[in-house]
Design a protein that fits this description.
Elements lengths: L1 E8 L4 E13 L3 E8 L2 E10 L4 E9 L3 E2 L3 H10 L5 E2 L6 H15 L4 E7 H6 L3 H7 L3 E3 L9 E8 L8
Parallel strand pairs: 5-8
Antiparallel strand pairs: 1-2, 2-3, 3-4, 4-5, 6-7, 8-10, 9-10
């Protein structure tokens, strides 16, 4: 599946279009979704099937700086001019496209609930993270026994059969 994501390139002051290919890898209990820009992995979503029809959303990550220059030039360019050859994929809708695709898969496969832990480090690096989850239909709750030890929030999505509102 191909998604086009457009954002103004802040370094160059012009609009840039990036084609992202979402590659889905579904195992017996593991779900991985990779956001690709050409041959470069720029984001990933990982989830694990728990009890029947319940999924743990273990990671949603979009890279801040991906080295997109040819391998032979990386050592030279990135050492002397670190901003050349890197692309920032955050705040461009990549995470949203991955999450929407994942929740669509959950609906198709009759997953009734998705839950995940949010740790302080997540909130420090992405201050609007809880609002992002809420925009996609997640409830923000206090951590419970399903959370990892250092969780500060629990996010829960319930499949009510309706479409995602982003």
């Amino acid at each position: 599946m191909i998604h086009n994501v457009e954002q103004e390139d802040r370094n160059m002051g012009k609009s840039m279009r990036t084609n992202l290919k979402l590659q889905q890898d579904v195992g017996d209990s593991l779900f991985r979704l990779w956001a690709m820009d050409g041959k470069f992995k720029v984001g990933k979503l990982t989830a694990v099937l728990r009890e029947e029809n319940t999924v743990l959303l273990s990671d949603v990550m979009v890279d801040e700086a991906v080295v997109t220059c040819p391998f032979l030039f990386r050592r030279i360019l990135c050492k002397w001019w670190p901003r050349i050859g890197t692309t920032n994929y955050r705040q461009r809708g990549v995470g949203t496209k991955m999450l929407e695709s994942f929740l669509g898969w959950c609906r198709e496969n009759e997953i009734t609930q998705v839950f995940g832990s949010v740790v302080q480090r997540d909130l420090d690096t992405t201050p609007k993270l809880l609002a992002w989850y809420a925009r996609h239909g997640f409830e923000i709750r206090q951590p419970d026994s399903r959370c990892i030890g250092n969780a500060v929030n629990l996010v829960v999505w319930k499949n009510d059969g309706s479409a995602i509102s982003a």
